[in-house]
Amino acid sequence: MSLLLPVNTMSEPELGAPAEGRIISGNPQFRTWNAEETSDGLYAGIWEATEGKWHVAYDEWEFFQLISGVSVVTEEGKEPVTLRAGDSFIIRPGFKGTWEVIETTRKTYVIKL
Question: Residue 1: its pLDDT value, please?
Answer without folding.
Answer: 73
